[in-house]
Structure formats: structure tokens, C-alpha cells
Amino acid sequence: MDLSVMTFNIHKGRHALLSRKTLSKVRDFLAAHSVDVVFLQEVIGADPGEDHYDQVKYLADGLSSQFCYGKNLVTEAYHHGNAILSRYPIVDWRNEDLSTNRYERRGVLEATIQLPNQKKIKAFCCHLNLLRGSRRTQIERISRIIDDQVAHFDGPFFVAGDFNDWLKDAGRVFHEPIWKEAGIVSEKKHFLTYPSWLPSIALDRIYYRSAELMHAEITDFGRFGYLSDHLPVLARFRVSSASAPVVIESGRSE
Fold first, then answer.
1. With the C-alpha atoms ordered 140, 142, 148, 152, is the resulting torsion angle positive or negative?
2. Is the dihedral of CA 79, 83, 89, 94 positive or negative?
3. Which of 42, 48, 100, 189 is the most exposed place for a label (fewest CB within 10 A)?
4. What DSSP line would sit under 100-127, residue for residue?
5. Distance CA 243, CA 205 (A)
């Protein structure tokens, strides 16, 4: 079966330079693209000052999607983190703390998703540190989490998000022949996604294994106008049907 995947840093549903809110347009944008699995970063899970108190639920309800949310930064007024929206059932999920200092609260959100062809996939949504040393530690941590599961899971793995990785350290861990990256497979280079008004840095990526890439592209905002300081990456994959029962270790929710 075909599976469409998008990663998108929505900048908390606000314009990067102005105070304008963009969340309703983000929802319309996602609906127009009818994506199966969406990896979101910088999503507010609770903010009494917002029109949409829970951004994750607002987006999921508007798309008739299942969702999971991993809060990373928590203040007295609000919290935000990563989210995964899915057209298909999310049968298990957990949020793993990746923070390496008190100034950058980071995590990786992991979801197990049941596809209609009896195959399950593992989806990891991340937003990594600006500091290179911390970022490399986080990349290695995600890799170890996945390595611990490979023997018990025969489906595809997807690791997507805002890597803040302009020095391309992630490719040294998620490398061929086991791992591939959608931009490199499609255009021989990572997609330039930041800043959205003049893309010159490759920050947003989709790494994958055990799936076949059919198409990948940077998706501009077009008629929806300005939505975020990041451009989304959209990819379509082919996922083979399950051939044997899959054993999955139980996860935890936060």
C-alpha cells in the first residue's frame, strides 16, 4: 500500500515575525494535502491564552485523525512539544525525554501505527537541540532506542522532524544501506526548508528504513499564505503487506 508522510514545524501556530495566528490555516493546509501520517514540531498542547486551547486536538479533530502528543517544554502558562497525527490507528506510543540541559527541553515521540494492509510502522517525531554536541547525543540516543526494537519488529521505521542539523551529523548515524533520507534519495541532497521565505538550510527531514520511496518534495504554502518559518517535507512510500505476526514490546504514555 501507499503511505504519505509529512514533517512540519508549525512554530506554535504563529507567524515568526508578526503576532498573527496561523493555526487554522495550518489545519486547512494539512486537510488539503490529505496526508496519512503527520509529524509535527513546536505544537502547543495547552495554553489558556490561545483561541485553540489544545492545538493538537484542534488539528486532529479538523482532520478526523488519531493523535499522540509528547510535551517537552512545560511552563506555568503552557506546554508544547511534538505530535503525530495519523489516519490509521495508533496502537501504542510513548515520549522519551532527550533533554541534555535545562535550557532546551527536547524529546522524541514514538508511535506504533497499524496500517490497513496488516503491517505496523514505527514513527519517531523529534525536534533536536541547537547545540551540536547535545544534538549528536540526541541522535545517538534515538538510534539506540530503535536498535533495541529492531529484533522484535519487522515493519518500517520512520524518523522525521526538525533536526536543526545543518552540519549533517544525523547522516552519520542514519546512513545507507539500512537507512535512507527522502531528500537525498529524491534529489541527491537534503531539502532546504528554513527559513520558509528564503530556504537556505536543510533542517527538516524524513529518514526511513524497510519502505520504498515513491516521491518526495518540499511543500510550499501556496494559496494558504505564510504558515511557519519552516517549510514542510512531504513524501509518499510503498509499504509491503505483513507476512508474519509481529511482536511489539509494550510502551508507556506521557
1. negative
2. negative
3. 48
4. -SSSS--EEEEEEEE-TTS-EEEEEEEE
5. 29
Bin 238: left if φ > 0, else alpha if -120 < ψ < 50, else beta. beta
pLDDT at 48 (0 to 100): 55
Angle at 123 between CA 151 and CA 210, to 5 degrees: 55
- Could you tell me how many residues make up the chain? 254
Q: H or E segment at 40?
A: strand 37-46
What confidence score (pLDDT) does residue 248 get? 38
What is the distance between the alpha carbons of residues 108 and 228, in angstroms, rounded to a whole number? 21
How many helical (H) and strand (E) elements, i.e. helices and strands, does the chain have?
4, 12
Domain map (residue ranges) of the chain: 2-238
Q: Which residues of the chain have pLDDT under 50?
A: 244-254
Q: Could you tell me which of 147, 80, 66, 81 has the C-alpha nearest to residue 112?
A: 66
Q: Name the burial class of residue 236, with classes exposed (0-12), middle (13-18) and buried (19+) by CB atoms within 10 angstroms of its CB.
A: middle
CA 254 to CA 109: how far, in whole Å? 10
Which positions ≥6 away from 165 have C-beta within 8 Å?
128, 135, 139, 202, 203, 205
Q: Rounded distance, CA 97 to CA 79, Å? A: 14
Residue 235: the pLDDT is 98
Q: State residue 52's pLDDT score.
A: 56
Q: Which three cell numbers stand for residue 152?
A: 522484535
Residue 49 belongs to what H/E stretch? none
